[in-house]
From TrEMBL:
<comment type="function">
    <text>Acyltransferase required for the direct transfer of medium- to long-chain fatty acyl moieties from a carrier protein (MbtL) on to the epsilon-amino group of lysine residue in the mycobactin core.</text>
</comment>
<protein>
    <recommendedName>
        <fullName>Lysine N-acyltransferase MbtK</fullName>
    </recommendedName>
</protein>
<comment type="pathway">
    <text>Siderophore biosynthesis; mycobactin biosynthesis.</text>
</comment>
<feature type="domain" description="Acyltransferase MbtK/IucB-like conserved">
    <location>
        <begin position="6"/>
        <end position="53"/>
    </location>
</feature>
<dbReference type="Pfam" id="PF13523">
    <property type="entry name" value="Acetyltransf_8"/>
</dbReference>
<dbReference type="InterPro" id="IPR019432">
    <property type="entry name" value="Acyltransferase_MbtK/IucB-like"/>
</dbReference>
<dbReference type="InterPro" id="IPR016181">
    <property type="entry name" value="Acyl_CoA_acyltransferase"/>
</dbReference>
Amino acid sequence: MRFTFRPLDPLKDAELLHRWVTHPKAVFWMMQDARLQDVEREYLRIAAHEHHQAHLGLHEGEPAFLMERYDPRYVELAGLYDPEPGDVGMHFLVAPTDRPVHGFTRAVITAVLDELFADPRTRRVVVEPDVRNKAVHALNEAVGFVPVREIQKPEKRALLSFCTREQFQAARGVAA
């Protein structure tokens, strides 16, 4: 599968994102009741943030997923764990579809990690999904994430997990 990334345009992409984040399958994104203006405002805030970026993931040129990259020293996890040099936080959301493709979500998270680890400064990817999101925990572990501990964030109880470049390569069967 061929994936590409482009910076998210908070205004042009808001309608598309609104459909994605308010879909029942995006319950853990915690924007179920968001209005279009709420989505615009949130992604304008991210676009203006020095330590947080959002990208639209394209599959064969068509929007298929959202990827957020953040510096956990300043965003999402500030004060909740001891960050190491090279830590990069990540969120991703696959677009809802009526025609699921087997293996697509795993291909997306693999592409996201490829993109993050393409930056030589990235040593470890950090995630903090809701503890109840068992599907994403299994997916994370399949690509090399190791759960460390539960943490309490203002909006949720989260499972703090890390994936080093070496763990990702090992999960893919690639020699380090």
